[in-house]
Design brief:
8-stranded mixed sheet, single chain, two-stranded antiparallel sheet, alpha/beta, 12 strands, binds cytidine-5'-monophosphate
């Protein structure tokens, strides 16, 4: 290991969209604020930051390499391309879990809409990429749940081969679109650090500070 270059950090943020036809999609209310705040906090520590973002209404953070994507497949391709060179992946994005089995090539006329839509799962980006993790690479997931948050988060940590997971309650509309957040950072060794409630800026700073001692630049 060498400290010759800054930590290279890959972050995903925002929602993804899955198209029913060229003018209709399904998604979720993720604003991208948490991921963008993490990108800024990592940059402020001097890290090299790559941000893969779904569609959000936020300005690109300064000095961050931003790649905009729309669908889960596009986010998967971007993360797979960038991950091998990164020391840490922080996967904040709220990936849309489902997509229509068939997307129409042209706008479906109102009188031709089928009121029953069959869905299929989108690729689990985090699980796919964490399976390719090399020694020294650290992978951090987020677990947004409305109940039994820490329990589900621990299960996800193991199932997806993660080093850390941020358990994040989204009950009663918390977290999504908000400027504030509260997370529990759980490590694969069982450690638990509570961060917040605080502004997403402060939560991001504390999260990066907690992760920093576990990271090293790889040769
Ligand atoms: O399984 P669940 O969706 O709750 O897991 C959340 C974590 O997994 C987040 O870090 C999210 O970015 C990631 N994820 C993903 N690809 C999916 C679904 C979730 O990378 N299709």
């Amino acid at each position: 290991m060498s400290d010759a270059r800054p930590i290279r950090c890959l972050i995903t943020a925002g929602p993804t969209r899955e198209w029913l036809d060229p003018v209709r999609f399904i998604t979720n209310p993720s604003s991208g604020k948490m991921g963008y705040a993490i990108a800024e906090a990592a940059r402020a520590l001097g890290w090299t930051v790559e941000l893969v973002s779904g569609p959000v209404a936020l300005a690109a953070p300064e000095d961050v390499e931003l790649e905009k994507v729309v669908t889960g497949e596009e986010m998967l391709a971007a993360v797979q391309r960038r991950f091998p060179k990164c020391d840490v992946l922080i996967k904040t994005a709220a990936v849309c879990d489902m997509r229509p089995k068939q997307a129409a090539a042209h706008k479906v006329k109102k009188d031709a809409i089928s009121w029953t839509v069959e869905f299929e799962p989108t690729p689990d980006i985090l699980k796919t990429v964490a399976a390719t993790k090399q020694p020294g690479q650290v992978v951090v997931g987020f677990a947004a749940e409305t109940q039994d948050v820490e329990n589900y988060a621990r299960k996800k940590l193991a199932a997806k081969n993660l080093d850390f997971i941020c358990a994040n309650s989204v009950a009663a509309g918390g977290a999504f679109e908000s400027d504030h957040n509260e997370i529990a950072l759980i490590g694969k060794d069982g450690s638990l650090v509570r961060i917040g409630p605080a502004s997403k800026t402060d939560v991001a700073r504390e999260l990066i500070a907690q992760l920093a001692p576990h990271l090293a630049t790889r040769a």
